[in-house]
Structures are given as C-alpha cells and as structure tokens.
Write a structure and sequence with these properties.
With about 675 residues, the chain is of the alpha/beta class. It contains 26 helices and 13 strands. Among the domains are: about 100 residues, P-loop containing nucleotide triphosphate hydrolases (Rossmann fold); about 100 residues, no CATH class; about 100 residues, no CATH class; about 170 residues, P-loop containing nucleotide triphosphate hydrolases (Rossmann fold, 3-Layer(aba) Sandwich), CATH 3.40.50.300. A six-stranded mixed β-sheet has the order 9-10-8-11-12-13. Strands 3-4-5 form a three-stranded parallel β-sheet, sandwiched between helices. The chain has a two-stranded antiparallel sheet with strand order 1-2. Helix 14 runs parallel beside helix 17. It starts with a strand and ends with a helix.
C-alpha cells in the first residue's frame, strides 16, 4: 500500500515474450529507479481455485482495502479470470465493492484479453478528473465485442497472408518481415499475439502444400492410364494379374523409366520430388495407393470391353455375310430384325452396327453390279438389234428383263431397280460407243492402263528435265470464268455442268478434264467477283451478251479486270483468252435486231482481239443457247493455249515415243484382274 517506490536499476517490463528472452528485447531501465503511485487496482480472483476458500480471499482483500483507503488514492476493483468465473463469487465481489464507498468494478480476463485496457483507463480517469468518464462494460458483453474484433482482424490477417504467401516453401521469418508494416498484421498481433499469427501462417503454408501435392497427384493419375496403354496393352499378358504382380511386370518393360521414376525415399509426397516440376514421370510408389489400383482395374476392364466389342463386331459381320436375308439394297430397318440380338445391343450402339451394315451393303452392291455387268456381256446379242443412239422402248426393256429375269445376278439387284436399269442403259451406250470413258470397268480399263504405263515409263534420259513440266497436274484442269449479266453466266454454267460427269469431269477428244467454273455477274472490282482468287487461276473467259446493255457490261468488266493487273508481276489476265458469245435473248422487246447485235459483237471482238461466236456461225437459230459443240470448241481452244503456256517448246509424250515401234495385241477382257506392269514391261523393255 506504499505510494512511493524505489526500483533502482530494474528493467522495464513489456510483454510475456520477454520472459527468459530479455536479450532479444530493448534493454530499458526504470527512470531513476523511483516512482510515485497515483492509484491502485485491487484484484479479486473469481475463479474456483484448488484448496482455496473465496471467503478467506475476500477477508484478505477487505483488510487490504482498509490499508489502501488510508492513502487517499483512487481505487478500482478488478475481477480477474472471469473466463472461468463462478457466478456467486462475482456477485459477492460486487457486493463488497458497493459496501466500500461504491467502488467501481471492472470484470476482466487476462487470458482472453477482455477489459484489461478498460481497468487501467478507468483508474486513470479517477486520477485525472479532466478526462471523460469511462463506460464500464460487463464481461460477457465485452467478450462478445472482443470476439468480433478478433474475428475481423483474423479475416484481414488471413487475407494478407494469402496475398503475400503463394508458395508452400515460404518461411515465417521472411514473411513476417514483409508484413511488419501492414496494419492487418499489426492489429492481429496486438489482439492475439505473435504465436497465433505464426500458427495461422503455418496453417496456410500447410494448406498450400497439400493443394500442391494434390495437383501433382491428379496429374500423375491422369497420365497413369496412358502408361498402362503404352506398357501393358495386351490383355492376355495381364488378364489374371493383381496390381502387385502388374507392378513387377511394369518394371521389366523397356520403356518403364520413360513413364515412372523410382525414388530412394518414400512416400513421394513427403520428399523433395513434389517440387521437381521438370520431372513429370510418375513416382512408382504411387502404384501402391488405392486410386492407382482402381485405375489398373479400370484398364483391365477397358481391355476386356474392347475385346468383347471387337468380338461383337466380328460376330455381326459374320451374321451379315452368312445371312440369306441380307441382299443388296435392303434397308437397315428391314434387315435389323433378322440379324440383331440382345448381346449386340448390350455391347455396341446401334449407330456402329448401322455403319458396319452400310459398308457391307456398299461391298455387296458393288459386287452385285460387277456380276450383273458380266451377265450383260454374256447376253450381248440382246443389244445388237437396237438403233444407234436410240433409247430402248418399254417393250424392248421388257424383253431384256424377261430374258435376264431368271438369272440370280439379275435378281440380286431386285431392290435397286433404278440402278439396274441405269446399268443396262450404260451398257447399251458402251456397245455403240466403246471408248475408255464409256467402259464399265473405267478407270481400270485396259486401254487406260496401257496409256498410263507407256506415258509414265518411257521418258528419254536427255529429256528428264522436262518431266516436271509434262507431269504438271494442272494440265488436266481447266478453270473457266463465265462473264454475263442478268443471269446469263449462271444459266450457262448450269448447262455446262449438266454436260459434265458427276464429279465435274468433261471429255475433250477422248480425254477427261476437271472443269472448274466461276460465273460472274457483278462488279469485277469487288473481291467476290474477281476473276482470280488464291485458289482459282483462270485459263480463259466466256463473255456472254444478249443485248446492248449486257455487251456494255462485258466490255467494262474486261477493261476493269485488265486495269487491275497493270504493273503487277502476275498480270496474265491481260493476255487471258476471251470468247465473246451472243446467246438467247429470252423474249427481248427492246427492238434490237439480230443483225445489229452480231455487228456490235464483231466490233467489240475485234477491239478486244478475241474470238466471236454467234448463232449463225454455229448453225443454230436465234433464240437458243450455245450447244455442246460450241462449248467443246471453246474448251479445246483454251486447252491448246494452256498447253502452249505450260510446255513452251517441250514436245508431247507421243513424240517421245516416236522411235518406238510397238505392235502389241492385248486379248484381255476389260475388268479382269491383272498387273499391267507384269505383262507390258517385259515387252516394252525388249523394244
């Protein structure tokens, strides 16, 4: 109860961290070793103590108070350990304070840091009356406020740690130094202390490490099925092996170390291997974990299912090949009930069976067509009495079908009557026009094989440098621009396509050419109407007109196209072969006469230095479009120009063989399987 104290050369006390570690803190002594006491905190322990009677404590505190009261100094009663306080003790302490001149009571907990500052600030206010009166808060209300304050500070501190610490290898010393000036760190340490701040940091680092390990584990497990596929793809080898025995088998494989790494220390997730990001091989001890065993079992099941599905495919194909109900052209809907069973549906989707069925149908249809073609050749006398170029009448077709009707090769195409009739008509056309193009065995026609063999085998050594020119694939392709207004270009393009084969091929002088058409009817300066594109290099242009306006459009378009290439290296459009054609007027009422249109066309053709075609010169009447003869004439002219441009002074492949006198008689039926090289090369080489 003394009010004057002397504490010479004593160190000042800061916090609990100082105990036992005095050298790590600032060494600051008490000033002069003397101080005056201005007030007292009278502490009462309200917890349940061992071998301690609270009433005895209260008597001691009462006697102590009597001594303190004599000093005339302010006194504040402080109830300590309220976090473990006994309600009766707290009540008795408040009663004691009321009996002693209504002393102020502050309920505290040093462990929870509740109302500690309030106890001192209450005493300071009693000492210094100029300060505002302090509001005393009950323990549980203060505890609630304290908990909220700590929770908010903890959230902010954890956010700070998560923002700064991104790697699980960070250390507390480095991170705490970085956070030292951050208010989030300072507030939390003030409320909870450095140890709790460090504990939260370590929890965060541990969480980062576990997340990192989990990512690595998922990566290894995602690669493991690929390792199984590469090392043990054969079901017969592992069908009855457990995962442990499969591990031993894996180690014997030549590519084992390409997929796995055997670590000296295990388990892998407790070693430095987790940070070896450059090595993506799978730690072999991972095979001992349950997820790896499950993946191995899944690999086994996958191989078994694949084998079963393959067996189902084979069984289905065998059903197709042996079933008498599967005939050429039979739809899947009709065939399904004859060949499908529950096992098929269990293992494969219907779409897969449909695909297999479609391929099988294609094979048997092709085979049936070939056999039907043989049948037609065997009954050639049926077609000799037909008129040249005449389509057989219904009666004649009926006779043909009656004669062939009993043949199985005829019945095989029962569900493909349209295609069967088309084969008959095609055969009739071949009988009267036997060429390579009309041959039923095209493109394996003997004539085609001989031509190809001769042209590909016999090139003189001195002319091998010309081979690249002669084998230019573009020589068999014609790119044609069709220029016209008001639908003329599109209409002619459709007519030309109608004369082509199904794959846009056109026959000129017995040879097949790929014909690519580009109809243009708008402004040629726009990219969409340009004569040439990155994938289309024109070899010629058909210019169509049926009126004065459409003729003007042709002239303007040609001039614009030529102007656009002046000064450019690829200015071949200036010399592009042109053909000006007068076509059907389609009911013109403008009064223009045929004579005036022809005269104007001739003048323009002379100006453009191009070929001019009119109905009169072609031998057809006005009001009809150009015919096949004119088209062939135009395309032949373009082809000659293209050859001259590509080959320059090179000779044709026929002249290359001018000194080879060949007399070969081939007694082979077109379509018979034979190797032309084996038959022809010895003959040609002997020459």
């Amino acid at each position: 109860a003394a009010t004057k104290l002397a504490s010479a050369e004593k160190l000042m006390y800061f916090c609990t961290d100082q105990l036992g570690l005095e050298q790590d803190f600032e060494q600051k002594q008490m000033p002069d070793g003397k101080l005056l006491v201005d007030g007292f905190l009278l502490c009462i322990d309200v917890s349940r103590g061992m071998n301690r009677n609270f009433d005895d404590q209260l008597k001691f505190v009462s006697n102590l108070y009597n001594q303190l009261a004599k000093t005339k100094k302010p006194i504040v009663v402080v109830l300590t350990k309220c976090d473990e306080g006994v309600e009766r003790y707290i009540r008795d302490a408040h009663t004691f304070a009321l009996s002693k001149k209504n002393l102020q009571v502050v309920e505290t907990s040093a462990r929870s840091n509740v109302n500690i500052d309030l106890a001192f600030s209450t005493l300071v206010q009693l000492i210094d009356k100029s300060r505002g009166k302090t509001k005393i808060i009950p323990y549980f209300e203060a505890l609630k406020q304290q908990s909220q304050q700590i929770a908010a500070a903890k959230d902010k501190y954890e956010w700070l740690v998560s923002r700064i610490v991104k790697n699980h290898n960070e250390t507390w010393s480095n991170v705490s130094r970085k956070m030292q000036s951050s208010p989030e760190y300072q507030d939390y340490v003030y409320l909870e202390g450095t140890q709790k701040a460090k504990k939260l940091f370590l929890q965060h680092v541990h969480r980062l490490k576990q997340e990192h390990i989990e990512r690595r584990r998922k990566m290894y497990l995602s690669v493991l099925p690929q390792a199984f596929e590469a090392l043990i793809p054969d079901l017969d080898e592992i069908d009855h092996l457990s995962c442990v025995k499969a591990e031993k088998l894996l180690e014997t494989k030549p590519d084992f170390l390409k997929w796995f790494i055997v670590l000296e220390e295990t388990p892998w997730d407790a070693t430095s291997h987790i940070d070896n990001m450059e090595n993506e091989r799978i730690p072999f001890d991972l095979m001992e974990t349950q997820p790896a065993e499950q993946l191995y079992e899944a690999h086994l099941e996958k191989l078994r299912n694949e084998r079963k599905r393959a067996e189902m495919r084979r069984a289905f194909k065998e059903n197709l090949e042996t079933s008498p109900f599967i005939t050429p052209g039979k739809p899947w809907e009709e065939a399904r009930s004859f060949i499908m069973n529950e096992d098929f549906y269990m293992w494969l989707e219907e779409s897969i069976y449909m695909d297999i069925y479609s391929k099988h149908q294609k094979q048997i249809i092709e085979k049936a067509k070939e056999e039907f073609q043989e049948l037609l050749l065997e009954y050639s006398e049926l077609f000799y009495e037909l008129e040249l170029d005449a389509k057989p009448s219904k009666e004649k077709m009926g006779v043909i079908q009656d004669v062939l009707g009993e043949e199985q090769r005829f019945k095989a195409l029962q569900k493909l009557q349209a295609e069967r009739d088309a084969l008959i008509l095609k055969h009739i056309h071949f009988v009267y026009h036997p060429t390579k193009e009309t041959c039923p065995s095209c493109p394996v026609c003997v004539d085609s094989k001989i031509e190809h063999l001769i042209s590909s085998r016999f090139i003189r050594p001195s002319e091998r440098n010309q081979k690249n020119l002669l084998s230019d694939s573009n020589i068999d392709r014609i790119n044609l621009v069709i220029l016209g207004k008001d639908g003329l270009a599109r209409e002619l393009a459709n007519e030309i396509r109608a004369l082509c084969t199904n794959d846009d091929k056109y026959v000129i002088e017995g040879k097949m050419y790929e014909l690519s058409l580009r109809p243009i009817e708008g402004n040629v300066r726009l990219p969409v109407n340009s004569f040439q594109t990155p994938t289309f290099q024109p070899h010629g242009c058909l210019c169509l007109y049926n009126s004065k306006e459409s003729l003007s459009y042709v002239v303007e378009s040609i001039e614009k196209s030529r102007e656009s290439t002046i000064g450019r290296r690829d200015n071949h459009l200036v010399h592009l072969p042109l053909t000006l054609i007068l076509v059907n007027k389609r009911g013109d009422t403008s009064g223009e006469t045929l004579h005036s249109l022809i005269q104007q066309g001739q003048q323009i053709a002379s100006k453009l230095q191009c070929v001019f075609l009119d109905p009169a010169s072609a031998g057809i009447g006005y009001g009809r479009n150009i015919n096949e003869k004119q088209i062939s004439q135009v395309l032949k002219g373009l082809l000659d120009s293209k050859r001259n441009l590509n080959l320059v002074s090179s000779t044709s492949s026929i002249k290359d063989l001018a000194d080879v006198d060949l007399r070969i008689v081939m007694c082979l039926m077109c379509g018979d399987p034979f190797n032309a090289d084996d038959i022809l090369l010895p003959i040609l080489q002997s020459q």
